[in-house]
Amino acid sequence: MLKSSTINPTSSPISISGVQVRFFSDGQSLNYDRMANYESYKKSLAKFGTINLSNLIKEHFPSNGHKKLSCIITNPFVTWVADVAINLGIPCAMFWIQPCSLYAIYYRFYNKLNSFPTLTDPDMSVELPGLPLLHTEDLPSFVLPSNPFGSLPKMFSEMFQNVKSPIGPLVPPSLLGEDEDHDTGVEMWKAEDTCIEWLNKEAPSSVIYQPDLPEPDGAGQLPLGFLEETKDQGVVVSWSPQTKALAHPATACFITHCGWNSVLETVAAGVPVIAYPKWSDQPTNAKLIVDVFRIGLRLKANQDGIVSNEEVERCIREIMGSRREGQLPVVVHRTRIFCCL
Hints:
Elements: E1 2-3, E2 14-16, E3 19-21, E4 24-25, H1 38-60, E5 72-74, H2 80-87, E6 92-94, H3 100-110, H4 152-162, H5 194-199, E7 207-209, H6 226-229, H7 242-247, E8 251-256, H8 260-269, E9 273-275, H9 282-292, E10 296-298, H10 309-324, H11 328-340
Parallel strand pairs: 1-4, 5-6, 7-8, 8-9, 9-10
Antiparallel strand pairs: 2-3
Helix pairs in contact: 1-2
C-alpha cells in the first residue's frame, strides 16, 4: 500500500481481517495533489514506487531467506509493478478490476479495430460484438476524445501485448450459489453496524441505500442538527457494511456510481439500481444495468450536466412503483440466476 513520503514507509504493518498490510512511499508529500498532476505523478510513482516496493520485498523476503513470495498481483494502472516482479524473479498476475466487456472495448479501441468518437465526430455511436449500441455517454471515459489521461493508451497497449493467458472470471462465491460469510474480506475502514440495527426496524423493501465516495476536505459536511432531525427518515454512517446492507430485506433500491464491485454486489443481493455513473468504466456498467440486465434506471443530467432533484425523485418513484407491482424483482431474480450460471 502507498503512503506519502512524509510518513515513515517502514512503519509497523497493520492487519485487516487476517491480511497483513505493509506500506511503501510513493515519493510525494501528503499535500501533493495527485489527481491534478496525474501525468507527472504517474511518472514519479513509477520511479519511486519501483525503488521502494523492491526494497520492501527485499527487506521482508530476502533472496537467501526461507520465506518466498508466491506471486505479485497488480492492476493494469501500475504496469511498473510487473517490472519489479520480473527483476526479482517473482511470478506476476494482473487483476482486471472491470467487467470483461470493458476489456473488449479497450482492446478494440487501442488496436484500432473499430471507430470511436473523435474531436471531429464526438457524438459517434459505437457498435461492438456482443454489446448493445454504445453512445458517447455509455463509453468508458478513457476512450473519449476528452480523456485527460494521455498516457493510458500506451499503458493499455503494453498490457495487451504482455498478457500470456487469462484466468477467471473472478466472482464472489455467493454469485456461484455457494454459502459465504459476509464478514470475510478486507475493509480499509471499520464498518458501522448501527445501520443494520436501523434497517432491522424498517418495513421490507422500504429503504433507499446510497453510499457516497470520499469528498474533498470541507465538502459534504452535514448541517448542524441534521442527524437528529432526520433520524426517523434515515440513517447516516461513516462506512457501511455494504453487502449486508444490500442483502437486508428492508433495502428496496441502490443508488450507485456503478463501480463493478458494487454492480456485482447488487446483482448478488437482488436489489434494483438507480445508476449515477461518473467516469472510467462506470458509464458502460450503467448501460449494462439498464439495457442488458434490465435491473434499474439511469439518472439523466440536464444540459448543464446537473442531475435535478426532480430527476432523482422520478427514478425513485419509478423503481418503487415497479417493486410494488412486482415487475423488477422478477427481472432481478433472473439476472441473479444468469450470473450464477
